[in-house]
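Design job #97: recover the sequence.
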């Protein structure tokens, strides 16, 4: 079947972007079988089999990477099932999550951790709760992490194991499952080693056993998403606005000025930012209580945009430093109290 699908001409092969935008997601002629994703899924199954785990999570195409809560199946983004869709995702979102085999396998192992946890109801065990915490803890919109903590493994970017007890377990599971990682040696001396040893123990306990939960409802299955790609990406880019370089542009143009014929001889915005960087970051850290590396991350993004926009300083330095400091402080405080730099999650 895979070979047959691979050789079949797909209408997406030569489609124009305008036409692609008009297609409904449910009508996309894509499947996991016959693509490189199928090879990744088979590799996941082999890794589980090598660990003598009988469970093999069903994989399907969804709107994003996910494992529905309580279900034993894995959703893979539909945009990875065809190069034209992957290209569109990268254009609209700046990246296509899981687009390389190594990246895809990392995500599959992560999602497999969720699926196996639900399949064998591992998070109901008393010892599981003692080590990872309560699975019923509410997921926040965002999370704070300690980048140098050795209490958690490091698998996905963003120190994701620190997000939630469930993520702590699945990230630990993913490290344990990865063939090329010698976790006993890699995490020697880390407190996370205890978690890996527990995962190793609990996985030995389910070897060869069928799961008690076999529910595999395919939520957000791409065949049930009846919106066109244009509308899908309009909503997606709106919700992820903070992830795009131009997020700060409007406000930065209110603080600094755009370069024109009268700008000759004026200091650039980046000159001002470079000159007062340490003082701005230090003062904001003092008054907000936020870590300097978090503030520096925001400052760095603003610096890059000022450079790209070629903004200049037409007002006194003291006034500009005050305004940019207030702006960054507002972003940081919004983030502290809402998890969003813009202050709240807008709805369309």
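Job complete. Output follows.
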């Amino acid at each position: 079947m895979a070979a047959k699908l691979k050789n079949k001409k797909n209408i997406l092969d030569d489609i124009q972007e305008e036409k692609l935008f008009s297609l409904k997601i449910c009508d996309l002629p894509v499947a996991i079988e016959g693509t490189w994703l199928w090879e990744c899924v088979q590799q996941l199954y082999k890794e589980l089999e090598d660990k003598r785990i009988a469970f093999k999570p069903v994989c399907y195409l969804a709107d994003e990477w996910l494992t529905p809560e309580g279900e034993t199946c894995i959703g893979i983004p539909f945009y990875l099932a065809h190069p034209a869709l992957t290209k569109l995702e990268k254009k609209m979102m700046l990246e296509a999550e899981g687009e390389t085999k190594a990246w895809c396998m990392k995500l599959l192992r992560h999602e497999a951790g969720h699926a196996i946890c639900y399949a064998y109801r591992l998070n109901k065990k008393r010892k599981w709760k003692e080590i990872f915490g309560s699975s019923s803890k509410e997921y926040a919109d965002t999370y704070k992490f300690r980048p140098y903590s050795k209490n958690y493994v490091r698998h996905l970017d963003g120190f994701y194991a620190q997000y939630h007890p469930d993520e702590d377990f699945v990230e630990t599971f993913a490290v344990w499952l990865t063939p090329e990682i010698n976790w006993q040696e890699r995490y020697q001396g880390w407190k996370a080693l205890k978690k890996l040893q527990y995962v190793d123990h609990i996985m030995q306990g389910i070897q060869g056993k069928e799961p008690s939960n076999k529910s595999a409802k395919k939520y957000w299955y791409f065949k049930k998403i009846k919106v066109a790609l244009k509308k899908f990406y309009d909503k997606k880019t709106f919700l992820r606005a903070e992830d795009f370089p131009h997020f700060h542009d409007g406000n930065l143009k209110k603080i600094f000025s755009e370069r024109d014929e009268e700008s000759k001889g004026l200091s650039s915005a980046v000159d001002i930012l470079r000159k007062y960087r340490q003082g701005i970051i230090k003062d904001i850290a003092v008054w907000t209580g936020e870590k300097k590396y978090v503030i520096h991350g925001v400052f760095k993004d603003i610096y890059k945009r000022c450079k790209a926009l070629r903004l200049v300083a037409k007002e006194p330095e003291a006034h500009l430093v005050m305004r940019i400091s207030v702006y960054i402080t507002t972003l940081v405080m919004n983030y502290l109290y809402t998890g969003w730099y813009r202050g709240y999650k807008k709805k369309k």
